[in-house]
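Quick note —
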Amino acid sequence: MIRWDRVMQLRDEVGPDEFDEVVEIFLEEVQEIIARLHRDIDRVELEQNLHFLKGSALSLGFDQFSKLCQDGERQASAGQGADVDLPALLAVFDSSKLKFEAELNQKLG
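Predicted structure written out below.
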């Protein structure tokens, strides 16, 4: 669910002092896009929103979530945006976020 090696790599890249801010910004930006997904009832911007979420998730090690975003992005690109299971995708984000927050200090300790 979480690629901790990627999380550690990101912390090393930005430095321990900046890491918390990067995580905070990531979570805020993801929440903004999730709000857009809820407003985009016709799924007009689904492909773009999932593309953004995929990249953000990859950068912070949310592996399973990024894969689901990639699959959804491909579906939307193929004109099958209505088939994307957004509730399942968002449930994976929620569980990934909980796991990330619960284990962060232990893993990076």
